């Protein structure tokens, strides 16, 4: 895994450490701005976005996001599934809060990881999970392979997740969402050089930074026009000016995903 992205498991440990450190600091300096959602957004619910799934370990501790695309299929990031087995993960739907016990816990009967996946900055960061039982939530539609114009620079995209609200910070107990503009491929290449694989990735974020996905948001949805168009994948830190978030360009993988959804 590249030094640019943050491994989700390491991020979870870092977040827990940061949370413990924060607990020790009972009096936060008043001048420090409160961390913002995802980074820079608002709280929302799985009622508003019923297709947003928590990907958890067997203890139901969230470590990534996912998107329900049929009653038994969940799209997530390949990097979320590396080292996982069908027995080691769960998919939790209908649970707005990380500390909730409501919703539906789905077991996984199959994990498909894109066979080309070797690391987030190499592309192919997509996986499809098959659930043992159906989720009673409305799935999201996802882009078809021909819909490449959805990524036109400046298009408003929506990000969602329970990830950290600042780089190296703690996760959000409540699902959060924000909107970010898509970035041109030239702009993203300027930021990331050869780590930006144009065929497989799309960037989104404000030039000034301040709004972004962060550790723990990986695998979750990037929606454009309410349709799943990207998967949270990687970036240099979170919400930094000049370093937009990088998302799996789902149009490239749409047909492969459909094969998995129908298998
Ligand atoms: C992560 O590790 C992660 N700012 C997700 C998104 C970004 C960076 C890291 C992009 O889950």
TrEMBL record:
UniProt keywords, alphabetically: Disulfide bond, Hydrolase, Protease, Serine protease, Signal
Keyword Signal set for record: yes
Family annotation (SUPFAM superfamilies): Trypsin-like serine proteases
Signal peptide: 1-33
GO MF terms, alphabetically ordered: peptidase activity
GO biological process, alphabetically ordered: proteolysis
Annotated family: Belongs to the peptidase S1 family.
Protein name in the entry: Serine protease
Native source species: Streptomyces djakartensis
Organism lineage: Bacteria, Bacillati, Actinomycetota, Actinomycetes, Kitasatosporales
């Amino acid at each position: 895994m590249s030094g640019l992205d943050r491994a989700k498991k390491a991020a979870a440990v870092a977040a827990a450490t940061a949370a413990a450190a924060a607990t020790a600091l009972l009096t936060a300096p008043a001048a420090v701005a409160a961390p913002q959602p995802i980074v820079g957004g608002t709280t929302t619910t799985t009622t508003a976005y019923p297709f947003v799934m928590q990907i958890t370990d067997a203890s139901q501790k969230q470590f990534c996001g996912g998107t329900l695309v049929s009653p038994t299929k969940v799209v997530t990031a390949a990097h979320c599934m590396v080292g996982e087995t069908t027995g080691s993960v769960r998919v939790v739907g209908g649970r707005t809060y990380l500390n909730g016990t409501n919703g539906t816990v789905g077991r996984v009967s199959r994990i498909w990881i894109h066979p080309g996946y070797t690391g987030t900055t190499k592309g192919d960061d997509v996986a499809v999970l098959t659930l043992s039982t159906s989720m009673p939530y409305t799935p999201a539609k996802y882009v078809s392979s021909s819909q490449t114009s959805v990524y036109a620079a400046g298009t408003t995209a929506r990000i969602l997740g329970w990830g950290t609200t600042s780089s190296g910070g703690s996760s959000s107990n409540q699902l959060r969402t924000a909107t970010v503009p898509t970035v041109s491929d030239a702009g993203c290449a300027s930021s990331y050089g050869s780590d930006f694989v144009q065929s497989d990735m799309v960037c989104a974020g404000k030039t000034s930074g301040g709004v972004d996905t962060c550790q723990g948001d990986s695998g979750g949805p990037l929606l454009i026009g309410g349709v799943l168009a990207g998967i949270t994948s990687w970036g240099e830190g979170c919400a930094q000016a000049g370093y937009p978030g990088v998302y799996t360009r789902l149009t490239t993988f749409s047909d492969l995903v459909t094969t998995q959804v129908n298998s």
